[in-house]
Hints:
Elements: H1 2-12, H2 20-23, E1 30-36, H3 41-52, E2 57-61, H4 64-77, E3 82-86, H5 94-104, E4 107-114, H6 129-157, E5 161-165, H7 178-197, E6 204-208, H8 217-220, H9 227-231, H10 237-250, E7 254-255, H11 261-270, H12 273-284
Parallel strand pairs: 1-2, 1-4, 2-3, 4-5, 5-6, 6-7
Helix pairs in contact: 3-10, 6-7
Amino acid sequence: MALIAKLVEPWRRRHWRADPKALAAYAGLRPFTVVTGGSEGIGLALARRFARAGHDLLLVARRPEPLRLAADRIRAESRVEVATLAVDVTRSDAIAALEAALAQRGAYADILINSAGIGLAGQFGEQSPEAMAQLLELNVRALTVLTRHFLTGMRVRGRGGILNLASLGGYAPGPHQAAYYASKAYVLSLSEAVAAETAGQGVRVCALAPGPVNTRFHERMGAESARYRALVPPASADAVARAGYLGFVLGWRVTVPGLINPCLALALRVMPHRLVIPIVGWLLQPRGQNAPNA
């Protein structure tokens, strides 16, 4: 894998031109991979996979104790440096806290993994304004702000990249999870657009779009009773992380893990919404609940 990446690197940097003055700001600093939502679930699985490839890590999440446990686990598995930062990335001072944590270690963000996110299940009109605002702040605004901030240095250095956690749900409207599906459609669209804008500058920008994954995510968002939880076998977080790492190294703009999910993603792209939305809505509807009359 490292050999493939090395061979294609000149092509990835075909439009990049070094600016010695700008590059001087990074002289003597070490590259770190920053993982938001890195204390559990897919974020932790991605952190472990990048650690096995030799990446020093800064794990970011809100709660200190899960962060400590995640860092200890990675240190036991891999010979890399693992730093932690307990911060809510939706806060206005989150970027300053991230930069301070990196500066303390003589490091810069070479790779950013935006894995932090929340879901929201139920009727859109019955969601509280507070819950809706929290979802938009984390899934959309914070991801956008972090992507924009760290992309600047990556373009200066002509290396690094951003891996944004999207979802197979981003390919279609999702009745009963409307705001969550819409937020992941945003992540897909943003990632593909920025990847096109930075093509040839040495920076990878990828979206990882898994289907259901065997984590506590569905329980926390209140979707455990949805039909898809009984009908669609979930992937493991480790399998998703392996696919995400491979897609990132190869420079894919979107990685859809699994054998069936890429076919589903294509079908959701080409099928009329008039057909797709009732099917998706039925799958997302709680079991035992009848669909409303059309």
